[in-house]
Amino acid sequence: MTKAVFTTKSASSYDDLPEVRYHFPKTYLNQVERAVGDWIVYYEPRRSSNDPASRGGAQVYFATARLVRVAPDPTRADHFFAEVEDYLQFTRPVHFREGSHFYESGLEKPDGSTNKGAFGRAVRNLSDAEYDLIWAAGFGHIIGAEPRLRLAPDIPEAPLQPIPGFSEEGSKFIYDEPLEQDRRIIEQLTSRPFRDRAFAAAVKDAYLDTCAMCGVKIINGGGRSEVQAAHIRPVEHRGPDSVRNGMALSGTFHWMFDRGLISVDDDYRLLLAKDRLPDTIDRFLGGNERLLVPKRPDLRPHPKFLAWHRSNVFKG
Q: Helices (H) and strands (E) in the chain — how many of each?
């Protein structure tokens, strides 16, 4: 087994749903099969679509997942699906190059420039050490290596702490304990407390610590926000820890959402089980009739997760 990088565009022509599957041509079958049973990292390229002139991609590693199997595409010859589980979005997107350090050594030429030929490959195998450095950068807030990167800069954060097993010399990152550190990382990635913290941080950042239904933002004296990170499709029903499967909700609206008293249509219109709610619900909503979604489309609730909630939870 070996780890891998999967490149996916926000407007891909492939049948990707990164939380569940990655669609790819036979060209990359060997690299993908080598990673079955191990962990992969998702990367967003510069181009946001297949149009050579398109731009807008963030050029960042943005999530990780465990690759569980590869299956042929029954409708498209010489294409396959890489099926994943344990998807988890980074709390900080990681640029492929920070300073003079390339997270993937294969992307760096001897003169320090970017190897565009290697960069052009949609699937690239990754060493444990390279994966672990991306993981540490992506979850720095969760493991105590850096403060939470909020879009509200007035909120105080804890001081920086060193990452166990890592040191820094100049702009180069030195990886100290590859086997043991990688083992500890995998243990955390499958730990529910770690995943809950990472999911909550990513969702709250996407929604600016504001309830997506009532629009209220409350920060206590310690800098902690009142909103909670709610799964649309619950984890116990195979819902992924993805921002697109989440919303920031105040405690009251989280309770109502989980009990099917309120839901969301595909156009983000709020749906109320009015025969089960008091008339005063309109005052709680503050006049909002639609969900307050993130500005970035790729962070908004995905229609498949919203449809699951309406079909399986909503009592309207």
A: 8, 14
Question: Closest Cα partner for 95 from 45, 53, 130?
Answer: 45
What residues have CB less than 8 Å from 192, skipping those under 6 apart? none
Q: Distance between CA 73 and CA 226 in Å, rounded?
A: 44
pLDDT at residue number 157: 37
Separation between Cα atoms, residue 20 and residue 167, nearest integer Å? 34
**Length of the chain as a residue count:** 316
What pLDDT digit, counting tens, does each position of 12-24 carry?
789 999 999 999 9
CA distance 306 to 293: 13
- Rg value, the chain, Cα: 21
Model confidence at 186, pLDDT cuts 50, 70, 90, reads: confident
Residue 94, φ and ψ in degrees, nearest 5:
-110, 120
Mean pLDDT computed over every residue of the chain: 84
For residue 303, the surrounding DSSP H or E stretch is helix 303-312
Query: What pLDDT, in 10s, does the model give residues 189-201?
Result: 888 999 999 999 9
Interstrand relation of 3-7 and 39-44 (parallel, antiparallel or unpaired): parallel
Q: Which helix (H) or strand (E) holds 115?
A: none
